[in-house]
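Q: For a teaching handout, I want to show students what a protein-ligand complex looks like in token form. Below are the inputs, and the small molecule is calcium ion. Please produce the holo structure.
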Amino acid sequence: MTGKGTILLIEDEPDIADLLRMYLEKDGFRLVHAASGEDGLQRLDERDPRVVLLDIGLPGIDGIEVCRRIRSTSDVPVIMLTARDSEIDKIVGLEIGADDYVTKPFSPRELVARVKAVLRRSEERPIVPKVIELGGFTIDSGRREVVTPSGEVIRPTAREFDLLWYLAEHRGLVLSRNQILEAVWGYDYFGETRTVDVHIRQLRKKLEGIPIETVWGVGYRLGD
Ligand code: CA
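A: Here is the structure, written as tokens, with calcium ion included.
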């Protein structure tokens, strides 16, 4: 069965590759496996996958560098596979352009859910661009950029922008981390609500003065 297209897995652990092949093929995807970054980049060219699953710890060039190289030529969705929770901050902080990440060990079902979510999102861009003005910031969903009160144009990463846009469309409302995960990440994120905090932190850093309030014990609110 190849009906849903090709997924490229760049991962040096054969056990993980076998397991993911079984689950993805059961779901109608075709898995192409590359055991090194160099091999993966070549397969990306040849096979034109719909999603790339990319391990960070690889022999030769590491996953972070592979992601950078992918991004210099392609906007294919990339899901990073990380060995440690602490690496998530690193991936987000480096802004290498990954769309999502999972921490090992992960359940194959969870990963398949994320593949589907990432595909859904990449096919569901807003059709009618809109602009929301808020606290001196202009948030433009067509250009996916933000103009600061001082006139500087900032382009957040894709996920950061989706998060900001969701908050902006619901401004004034208190949104729980779970609500945000479901809306922005597209599905139940298995309780990994810390992801939201990491992205909020990045937004506050990039958009100094953006009125995102922390509502203790609940979540976040974008004020006016
Ligand atoms: Ca590895």
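A: Two things your students might notice: The first helix runs from residue 14 to 26. The chain has two domains: 6-123, 131-222.
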